[in-house]
Amino acid sequence: MKKLIYILLSLYLLMPAVLYGQQRFPKPEFDSGYEQPDVIAPEPRAMGLEYFDVLVLLGVLSLASWLALKKRSRQGILWLSIFTLVYFGFYREGCICSVGSIQNLVLSFADPAYVISATVLLLFLLPLIFALFFGRTFCAAGCPLGVIQDLVIIQPVSLPFWLRKTLGLIPYIYLALAVLYAATGTDFIICRYDPFVGIYRMDAPYTMIVLGVAFLLMGMFVGRPYCRFFCPYGVLLKWMSKFSRWHLTITPAHCIQCKLCTTSCPFDAIDYPSEEKAIAGSRAGAKKFVVYAVLVPVWVLAGAFVGMKSHTMLSRSNQDVYLAELLIKHPEVKSDPDNLDVQTFLSSGRTMETLVEDARIVRKKFYTGSIIAGAFIGLVIAMTLLNQVIYRRRTDYQPNPGDCYSCGRCMDYCPVEKPKK
């Protein structure tokens, strides 16, 4: 527990350095005539195809839920995931996906001029609805980002508990940043830094190809590293799945404590039965619970403070803010023909006053948004610590409802047969 607290504190103190990272795009190899692409309007497909995608996703989710809960077929889930890889991955090129739709939804709330289609809303909601009732069956066979990692697992290793909990904070930070950047109209960072979309499209910057290959190589030994330690949509799925009415179970009947399932899950998502030492220790942990509970508002306020101090640096990722600061501090760049951003602005007809006013409005949005994002991250850290001293009695081996991807691997290890009617 002490090691976990030290790691969490170190991560929290280093968070400003992570948040301060400025986004810069490589200058295209064009002499002239280049127009900066708009990365926050990714709905280019025909509406009929979009609705067909929704129907396919609905079918995949329904079939995956039936295979996991009723049929209990790992092989069926595997073949269904291969279909998802081919269709949503290589054929539909991984876009628009449910993971990235978070940004579309946020921007539509923040900017009345940005309207999303009903299909994008459905792509966002359907996996969450199914997770609320049947667990994370979307992760099992409906997400091309997860499927491609699931298929390369060869020799998974179990990570230490403290390391899993520490790395598990990254998706919450990623989600907070993605919402912040989308709400301010700055960028869609989930889509821009998707490690696998370049593989699906067979076209991506060299660095993104390297990142995608690195995730796949890592995934041979660490099950689904992107899903477990980066995916922001996984945070929402985890919340929904914790309250799922029906969920995949390891055994179809009573557990016989054979322990054969303990090595079956490559994602460390199986909870073990409670030990007597844990039962005795839970009584002594009451004081820790009170201390951690009292510290919750302290973590929230600390997070809000860090977010407030970070907003200036974070806002520089916005193109208007970046240009305004650059032109104010270095007006000589106006005569630099190689500075594509500056030359594009000068040729756009916008005045410097307009640019500065737009930048001021964006920075004000970042001020408010960064405080909220920081408070959210502080709350997550506080609840992570508090959760470590909450005792839960378990008598059987069972999948953790929030972390389980409903892949069905554990079911094949269980020797208990399904009772016949």
Describe this structure in words.
With 421 residues, the protein is mainly alpha-helical. The protein has a domain at 46-250. Helix content is 61%, strand content 1%. The chain has 20 helices and two strands. The chain has helices spanning 2-19, 47-71, 74-91, 101-110, 118-134, 137-141, 144-150, 161-167, 170-183, 189-192, 197-201, 206-219, 225-229, 233-241, 276-284, 286-315, 319-329, 340-348, 352-387, 409-413, and strands at residues 270-271, 398-399. It has a two-stranded antiparallel sheet with strand order 1-2. Helix 4 packs across helix 5 (118-134). The radius of gyration is 24 Å and the shape is globular. It starts with a helix and ends in an 8-residue tail after the last helix. Mean pLDDT is 86; it is low at 10-42.
In N-to-C order, the SSE pattern is: HHHHHHHHHHHHHHEHHHHHEH
Major beta sheet, specifics? 2 strands, antiparallel
Total DSSP helices: 20
Rg from Cα? 24 Å
What's the overall geometry? globular
Main features:
20 helices; globular; two-stranded antiparallel ribbon; mainly alpha; 421 residues
